[in-house]
Design brief:
Elements (H helix, E strand, L loop, with lengths): L3 E5 L15 H13 L4 E4 L3 H4 L2 E5 L5 E6 L13 H16 L3 E5 L4 E2 L2 E2 L14 H18 L5 E5 L13 H18 L5 E2 L13 H7 L3 E3 L17 H4 L1 H13 L3 E6 L9 H17 L4 E4 L33 H16 L10 E5 L5 H13 L5 E5 L9 E9 L5 H12 L3 E9 L4 H5 L1 E17 L2 E15 L3 E5 L5 E8 L2 E6 L3 H6 L10 H7 L7 E3 L4 E8 L2 E8 L5 E2 L2 E3 L3 E8 L4 E2 L4 E8 L1
Parallel strand pairs: 1-2, 1-12, 2-5, 5-8, 8-9, 10-11, 11-12, 13-14, 13-15, 15-16, 16-21
Antiparallel strand pairs: 3-4, 6-7, 17-18, 19-20, 20-21, 22-26, 23-24, 24-29, 25-28, 27-29
Helix pairs in contact: 1-3, 4-5, 5-6, 8-9, 8-11, 9-10
Amino acid sequence: MEFMLGCNYWASNAGALMWERWDADAVDKDLKVLSENGVSYMRVFPNWRDFQPVKVMRQWAGNEYEYLMTDESFPTNENYLDETMLARFNEFCSIAEKYNIKLIVGLLTGWMSGRLFVPPILEGLNLYTDPTALLFEMRFIKGFIGATKHQKSIFAWDLGNECNCLTYTEYRSTASSWTAIVANTIKAYDSTRPVVSGMHSLGTENAWTIFDQAEHTDILTTHPYPHFVPHCFKNTLTSQRTLLHPSCETAYYSDIGKKPCFVEEIGTLGPMTCNDETASKFLFNNLFSVWANGSKGLMFWCNSDFADIDRAPYTWDMMEDELGLADKERKPRKTLLAIKKFSQFLKKFGGEINPPEKDAVLISTRNQDAWGAAYSAYILAKQNDLTLSFAWSDQKLPDSEIYMLPSICSTRVMCMERYLELLERVRNGAALYISNDNGFVAKFAEISGIEVVNSLEVDEDGFTELYGEKIEFKRRKRYIVKPCGAKVLSYDNLGNPAICENKYGKGRVFYVNFPLETMLADDSFGFEQNRHLVYKKLFENTEQIVRSNDIKMSVTRHKHGEKYICTAINYGDESLKNKIEISKDFAVSKVIYGDIENVEPHDACVFEIEKI
């Protein structure tokens, strides 16, 4: 799958009202500017209210009599679709084809920019369970796909825009069954194109899960706006922790769901967050980062600012009309120029990059802040030039030499079957890392070589030392422990073992007596300090053929035949000179992009190495 580079699209003259205020000339001008600046994919939205304008006609006592179009005319097709709107969409597809832009079509676009756009007949209904809602959803899909699937510019069908916002449900069974109905209906009428999730804010223990979206759709999506995802806007937009969010979340979804995933929406939310210069740095840095870390694409929100629109949601929300890659006159902003520059790199690179090599498997566990722990661990790993893979505690364990249980919490960390399987892997030679946030695991003394003497709930700051440096921590439970076989690598300020290592069979267990990852999740500047040294200790025996000498620059390795493609990405505000180290057994055979001796701020170097 080629990298999908582009944006989400609404016409610059009308925003979400583009179909009722159709202007083919405006659309043509929009797409011309976008295509000239590297946009090759767009996500587009047939406004559900406009395309299926059906209402119920009632007789005595409010009983239903028949369904008509909103102007009370009879429908011209069995699916109650507006033929004029379908013609406009087909014209739109032809314009996209003219500019070689491929389309991801969000079918059930009933939620957009904070407003519901649903057919009048469905207002007030539960759109996931009501029989009338399900009937018209299936008819919409059948009719719309039937009328447009001949268009060559359509690449994929998206369920719709963030359909988990259409109605509220607390039940996973409802969310999963609704997704299955919609996805299977799409596949029934077009089995030749992939089905894209289009969802955001998925989880592992809530109603809308990564697992269920992966089961029913072909491609998963993230919408990693730092403003809306927990723990992700605790530092500036161009800080390392904020910049790594899209790469981490996309890898998290893809690894746990075992499906391709891409950044379907991303943006900085306009000039009240940052200026155009900052936004372009944020975007350009993320383009290299998500590309190198396995995302199948990135699509900015959105194509342009909108002309003054006199209807909701634009009269509700003062943010929505200033989110564009171009201004209202279609003049490209620096963000659009960043896309153009990256598109030129992709053309030079040619083909696809293989997935990055993974150095460890992080297992997200039950009853914890799973995302917070995973996100913090990902950043700490990147500061050590390491790339993590993710798994859920109930899933079959992937093969790995290192497993991680960061910031475990509660008495029900994972099912016993998987836990015993994990211990067997360690006995056979794997390493296991555990950090503790008031968690319980069976056979703790046996595997860790640590005995819990006593414990108490606290709210305290402390510190330990590694590599001669003081490492500060916070914790809410203090475990008073003593070694019963483990090697103590460091003590805390109270004289209590803080970091320990223990042999277990042929493997080893590395234990941290404080919640390193969840502690950092809401610490705005925690990653600017030296907490990465804990992971340096954990991974110090891991062979690295390429590494960086600065925590603000992270390296990925991609096996291509007998050679490696490597990326060195600078997540910092300063140039990094002579920071890339290559194993004596390898040599650089080609620099594909950038300067290997001087990686500019929020930029990258892509190079090829081969064994000597």
